[in-house]
Structure to design on (601 residues):
């Protein structure tokens, strides 16, 4: 017999592996933390699978629906907020039959480690009547993908694999297995199952209800739901996912029911087991989802009154909550705190970032700018503080219009400015722009800056709607200026923001222009395109210490002492400098020069 092969894998890589082993054929996604590496791994490591980063999550889901209808085992992954974008097709898709097994991976982010909100997508799963699996480590992540695709076919329902940031990025041992051969049947479904108009949809409400009831009844026998019995304890703890691993670290003498499927719950089984205990505690992050399901079904339990409703729950938090709940007598672990002597670092743009000069110009113009989601959201933070709000991907253009209409009613002609990245523009900004076209008032001063850096930088450099195939060279490029002009906007200009003075002149002119101006900045992302031109240095004898260059906030620039010179002068770390020349252009006395032109300090 062949020896078993093991590999240490992150949760995300294990999900990709599980999809491969399950005979998966089509996968789609839109990038976002914490799930982005699932599609990256499929894209770069599994050529047998077709995988894509779609233009947004709704399209990713639609690609997945088409593949599943045609009989391919399918995986669609997204960040938790992506489900908001995909919600429209999702809420109807869960009424239809599938064909190939379908798994929607939702990456939740308790504690908002890299997100604009904390939404608990278990609620979304229930809302969409979609069964939900919740793995607790990388091995389970892989196994649950395989189980999920099969059970999805058995029950003819799309399933959700709900994971959290901690599972996505933590690593543990995974056993590797062979890929299953799964044939693709083709689409030959009946209209009553795929044509979602009444009365078909009416019948489907009953079908969904029956399927969920059957799943709940069968789930007590699913191996992924595990009962760990302690004969000496009168407490039962019901938990799932990463919370199970954190709880196990406490090595408590309690009985545990570990749910692998958190919706629908194996209610009959849980009723039968919980009757044997004096106390039933639920441990779960964020909302009281499992707790509420138990209570609705008449199972008396305690939960959120002892555990925080927001953020991650680590082992220390669990021990403390269990002490308050009277399950353990003392809390032995020390709750970790951020040390006082750790210096907080504000996120900042990379050296030579193409967004920086744009915000430097806007700050000097004293513009208050409506922000969007991308690397440029960092302009909300000090020292720039140019953005005054940021809500969700693509929202800036609609917000600008709403503000302009409100100001119009107020009798105020306040000029308004919005910024949006190219990735976000394609994702969901374009409808907002179209919505400006047919109601725009030429008297009202609006300026839209589209920051075209060639990719979705903040999530690690994935393609946008414009950039073509992933992993290949960037093999296409939509001309945003041409596209917008074709729609009917006439005041559109593209500029090179590294030609600082020209860019500043154009932006300032457009900020003053009544009506809508659209400016497209064209420099690519310095980090992802690995830009490294000849660096610049400061000649301290010429520098007058005015700090204009420092205020551009490029990481290599700082004021420092020079031998034999009394005052502080600017200094550039040439190893970090990528040679964009912006600091040299803003220096009023020409103290910043290219290294090859003079002596490097
Ligand atoms: C609905 C939704 N999906 C995904 C994300 C994750 N996300 C945050 S920033 C970003 C990329 C934005 O790209 P772009 O607008 O081109 O800006 P850049 O980072 O390149 O400056 C993405 C996809 C999100 N915040 N919301
Ligand atoms: S990743 Fe690119 S766009 Fe983002 S801050 Fe760095 S250089 Fe700028
Ligand atoms: S030239 Fe100046 S602004 Fe550009 S990367 Fe170097 S230090 Fe930064
Ligand atoms: S802008 Fe020029 S003069 Fe002013 S601190 Fe920087 S290098 Fe010195």
């Amino acid at each position: 017999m062949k020896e078993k092969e093991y590999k240490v894998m992150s949760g995300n890589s294990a999900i990709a592996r599980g999809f491969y082993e399950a005979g998966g054929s089509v996968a789609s996604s839109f990038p976002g933390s914490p799930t982005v590496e699932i599609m990256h791994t499929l894209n770069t490591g599994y050529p047998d699978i077709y995988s894509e980063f779609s233009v947004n999550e709704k399209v990713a889901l639609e690609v997945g629906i088409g593949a599943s209808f045609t009989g391919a085992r399918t995986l669609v992954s997204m960040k938790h907020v992506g489900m908001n974008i995909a919600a429209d097709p999702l809420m109807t898709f869960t009424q239809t039959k599938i064909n190939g097994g379908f798994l929607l991976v939702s990456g939740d982010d308790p504690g908002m480690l890299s997100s604009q909100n904390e939404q608990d997508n278990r609620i979304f799963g229930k809302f969409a009547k979609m069964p939900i699996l919740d793995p607790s480590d990388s091995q389970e992540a892989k196994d649950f993908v395989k189980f999920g695709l099969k059970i999805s076919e058995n029950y003819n329902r799309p399933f959700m694999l709900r994971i959290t940031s901690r599972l996505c990025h933590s690593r543990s041992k995974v056993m590797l297995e062979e890929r299953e051969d799964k044939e693709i049947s083709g689409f030959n479904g009946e209209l009553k199952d795929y044509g979602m108009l009444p009365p078909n949809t009416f019948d489907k409400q009953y079908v969904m209800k029956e399927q969920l009831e059957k799943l709940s009844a069968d789930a007590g026998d699913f191996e992924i739901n595990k009962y760990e019995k302690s004969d000496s304890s009168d407490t039962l703890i019901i938990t799932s996912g990463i919370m199970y691993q954190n709880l196990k670290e406490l090595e408590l003498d309690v009985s545990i029911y570990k749910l692998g499927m958190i919706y629908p719950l194996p209610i009959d089984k849980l009723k039968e087991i919980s009757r044997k205990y004096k106390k039933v505690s639920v441990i779960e992050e964020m909302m009281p989802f499992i707790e509420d399901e138990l209570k609705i079904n008449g199972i008396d339990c305690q939960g959120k009154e002892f555990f925080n409703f927001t953020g991650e729950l680590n082992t220390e938090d669990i021990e403390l909550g269990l002490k308050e709940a009277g399950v353990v007598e003392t809390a032995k672990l020390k709750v970790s705190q951020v040390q006082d002597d750790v210096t907080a670092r504000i996120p900042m743009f990379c050296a030579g970032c193409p967004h920086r000069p744009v915000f430097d110009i806007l700050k000097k113009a004293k513009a208050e700018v409506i922000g969007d989601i991308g690397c440029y959201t960092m302009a909300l933070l000090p020292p720039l503080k140019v953005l005054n709000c940021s809500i969700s991907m693509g929202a800036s253009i609609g917000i600008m219009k709403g503000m302009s209409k409100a100001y119009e009613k107020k009798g105020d002609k306040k000029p308004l400015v919005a910024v949006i990245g190219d990735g976000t523009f394609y994702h969901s900004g374009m409808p907002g722009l179209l919505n400006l076209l047919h109601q725009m008032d030429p008297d009202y001063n609006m300026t839209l800056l589209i920051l075209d850096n060639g990719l979705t930088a903040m999530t690690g450099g994935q393609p946008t709607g414009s950039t073509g195939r992933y992993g290949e060279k960037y093999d296409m490029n939509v001309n945003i200026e041409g596209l917008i002009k074709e729609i009917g906007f006439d005041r559109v200009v593209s500029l090179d923001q590294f030609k600082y003075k020209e860019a500043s002149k154009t932006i300032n002119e457009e900020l003053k222009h009544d009506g809508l101006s659209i400016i497209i900045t064209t420099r690519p992302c310095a980090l992802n395109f690995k830009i490294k031109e000849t660096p610049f240095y400061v000649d301290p004898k010429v520098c007058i210490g005015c700090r204009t260059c420092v205020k551009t906030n490029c990481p290599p620039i700082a004021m420092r002492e020079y031998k034999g010179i009394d005052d502080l002068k600017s200094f550039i770390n040439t190893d970090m400098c990528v040679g964009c020349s912006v600091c040299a252009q803003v220096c009023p006395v020409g103290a910043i020069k290219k290294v090859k032109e003079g002596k490097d300090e």
Observations:
- The mean pLDDT is 94.
